[in-house]
Specification:
This protein is an all-alpha fold. 75% of the residues lie in helices and 0% in strands. Helix 3 runs antiparallel to helix 4 and helix 4 packs antiparallel against helix 5.
Length: 181
């Protein structure tokens, strides 16, 4: 190695004019990349068009996954909602059936109590109780016919009640005076 004191002033000036760093030529870079690829240390370079296409495909896949997640969530939510509504309807029907059972039992007990109760001397409370019982039975039979229109028992009950009402209207005498305004 040379020391600074061994250089002539012209050599020293020429040496100082040299750049401290130097970029390799593009030819050197290409040869180095080619050598590395031939040894299998570098993969082949992909074109810019393919790189852009990959981004488009990746974005489309992300959108599809997102939309698929939304659709799946809505489907699961709708299925759970339908299940919950069916459960509520089933519970409501069960509760309604239990209410009919309790109310029917209370109706039958009230009629039995009315039948065994002492009546007023003119018999008006017993007659009024009978009328109310038949009206309630008529209303209940009408509702049962709406549920099961072809039920012959309920249809027959309604026919008998209709006949009873028609018969009662023709035999009833006017006991009350109504004044219309």
């Amino acid at each position: 190695m040379l020391h600074d004191d061994e250089l002539t002033p012209e050599e020293r000036a020429a040496f100082d004019m040299l750049p401290l760093q130097r970029e390799p030529s593009s030819l050197l870079e290409e040869r180095t990349v080619l050598a590395l690829r031939s040894e299998g240390r570098l993969r082949a370079r992909q074109s810019r068009a393919w790189m852009g296409t990959r981004w488009v495909i990746a974005a489309a896949a992300a959108v599809m996954v997102y939309l698929g997640g939304i659709a799946t969530g809505q489907w699961l939510s709708a299925r759970e909602t339908a299940t919950a509504l069916a459960s509520i309807e089933r519970n409501n029907a069960m509760q309604a059936a239990m209410l009919v059972q309790r109310t029917g039992s209370a109706y039958a007990q009230a009629i039995a109590a009315l039948a065994h109760a002492p009546d007023s001397p003119d018999g008006r409370y017993l007659l009024q109780g009978r009328e109310v019982a038949l009206t309630a039975l008529y209303a209940a039979a009408n509702e049962v016919v709406r549920m099961a229109p072809d039920d012959p028992v309920v249809v027959r009950i309604l026919q008998v009640l209709d006949h009873e009402r028609d018969h009662a209207d023709t035999t009833k005498t006017a006991t009350h005076r109504v004044i219309w305004f």
